[in-house]
Amino acid sequence: MLGRLARWLRILGYDVAYESSISDDDLISRSLHERRVILTMDRELSQRESAKNCLLIKSDDYREQLKHVINHYNIDCKSFIFSRCFICNELLDYIEKEKIEGKVPPYVYSTHNEFDFCPQCHRVYWSGTHRGKILDKLDEILRVSLQ
Ligand SMILES: [Zn+2]
């Protein structure tokens, strides 16, 4: 239910663990151990005494969810954006251009000089039109009232 929210928060550079099947007790103990906040749609879980840092997400629209989380935690959307793999949650590393030849489309290779890669899944990232689209989408989400 919160998968898209998790991916968006990773795009913004935030460390997000995503669990779709974990018991409430395990989730709470992991959040305490790893000093994470819990984002959940489960009202009962959010009301538990032991779930101290918990935010109840009420909307099932990912855009509302994202806006809610950004506003609630006063999240900085620009400083860490595109620093993390949105699939694995790993921080991206800079990689020399020569090392990724053949791993990105030839046009991208010939028109870009800066590349990052994910040490976990080896996905290569670069600043291109897709990043512009993500920024436009983010502006749209933050500007528009979705109610
Ligand atoms: Zn990755």
Automatic annotation (TrEMBL):
Location of the Mut7-C RNAse domain: 1-134
Pfam families cross-referenced by the UniProt entry: Mut7-C
Name of this protein = Mut7-C RNAse domain-containing protein
Q: Which organism is it from?
A: Candidatus Scalindua rubra
Name the lineage. Bacteria, Pseudomonadati, Planctomycetota, Candidatus Brocadiia, Candidatus Brocadiales
